[in-house]
């Protein structure tokens, strides 16, 4: 059994400050990406009232009856709704995909509510566009922290065709939550380059340290949580860590979270550049096509409530 410790004190990346190499707090940011795979970002440019509006929209969606929501479920044409008992007995979500977040959300919203709700799609388009810009900026800063000139060399050539999608999630706790906490979502890593998460005031996000301890990542006012995903771990040849994490439910209230996943294009062959690997260091991942890894993970995860047993190491790791 993994031991639970106190909350984790993560560095904060303040985007209102200059991030030229001479000013970049690269040591703390890089250390966080290597040791924990998590950090906070503040002054990120996403209006606070947008989170409030999306949360209200979430309430509208997840209060609908199951039959209505399942119009978007795994057996539907759109497949944008994940019902409970797929990833967890307590978790359900709605996916909105880019690059045209308006069209993606409109298709789902029209199915749920009928036509005539453009304000919902406009809201999600605004959020998706803002998160695409934020993701690119964060990646540029991470590249700067990895080495001089890496932002200019790799930002467009390696990450220029990245796409993103958001997952609006609702966690419904069990009736006995006051006596026993529950895993809202089991241990897993993210199939992304980076993930940017807004979690509500209930918190519940935990990451697993290298020695197996679960550490709370509390909500931080006006900040978002950023974590390194599997694709970035492989691209960096393991220099950056995609950490196992989970969601724990402790209170008898529904938990809202909004996650944005920034990913390589489906057909990209992911291979660490020579400069990233470094002279004399072994490669620890074989090249692989992004979509093939995603399909590998998805085929092994349905109904696996307690933990996700497969990661990018299982798929493409080399013995060194």
Automatic annotation (TrEMBL):
GO molecular-function terms, A-Z: metal ion binding; oxidoreductase activity
Key words of the record: Iron, Metal-binding, Oxidoreductase
InterPro entries per the UniProt record, alphabetical: DIOX_N, IPNS-like_FE2OG_OXY, IPNS-like_sf, Iron_ascorbate_oxido_reductase, Oxoglu/Fe-dep_dioxygenase_dom
Domain of life: Eukaryota
Aminoacyl-tRNA synthetase found in the keyword field: no
Domain Fe2OG dioxygenase, first and last residues per copy: 162-265
Record family assignment: Belongs to the iron/ascorbate-dependent oxidoreductase family.
Protein name from the UniProt record: Fe2OG dioxygenase domain-containing protein
Organismal lineage: Eukaryota, Viridiplantae, Streptophyta, Embryophyta, Tracheophyta
């Amino acid at each position: 059994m993994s031991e639970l410790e106190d909350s984790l004190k993560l560095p904060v990346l303040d985007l209102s400050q200059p991030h030229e190499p001479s000013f970049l707090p690269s040591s703390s940011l890089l250390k966080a990406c290597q040791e924990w795979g998590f950090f906070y970002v503040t002054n990120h440019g996403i209006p606070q009232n947008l989170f409030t509006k999306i949360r209200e929209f979430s309430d509208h969606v997840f209060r609908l009856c199951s039959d209505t929501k399942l119009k978007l479920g795994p057996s539907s044409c759109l497949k944008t709704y994940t019902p409970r008992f797929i990833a967890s007995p307590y978790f359900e979500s709605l996916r909105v995909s880019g690059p045209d977040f308006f069209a993606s959300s409109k298709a789902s919203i029209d199915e749920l509510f009928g036509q005539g709700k453009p304000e919902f799609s406009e809201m999600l388009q605004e959020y998706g566009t803002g998160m695409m810009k934020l993701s690119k900026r964060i990646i540029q800063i991470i590249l700067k922290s990895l080495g001089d000139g890496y932002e200019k060399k790799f930002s467009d050539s390696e990450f220029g065709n990245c796409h993103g999608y958001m997952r609006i999630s609702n966690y419904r706790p069990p009736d006995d939550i006051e006596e026993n906490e529950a895993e809202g979502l089991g241990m897993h890593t993210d199939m992304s380059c980076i993930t940017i998460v807004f979690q509500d005031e209930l918190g519940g996000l935990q990451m697993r340290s290298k020695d197996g301890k679960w550490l709370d990542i509390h909500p931080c006012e006006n900040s978002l949580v950023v974590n390194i995903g599997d694709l970035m771990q492989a691209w960096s040849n393991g220099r950056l860590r995609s950490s196992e994490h989970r969601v724990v439910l402790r209170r008898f209230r529904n938990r809202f979270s909004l996650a944005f996943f920034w990913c390589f294009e489906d057909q990209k062959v992911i291979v660490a550049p020579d400069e990233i690997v470094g002279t004399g260091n072994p490669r620890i991942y074989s090249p692989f096509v992004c979509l093939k890894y995603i399909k590998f993970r998805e085929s092994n995860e349905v109904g696996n409530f307690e933990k996700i047993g497969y990661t990018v190491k299982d798929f493409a790791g080399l013995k060194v």
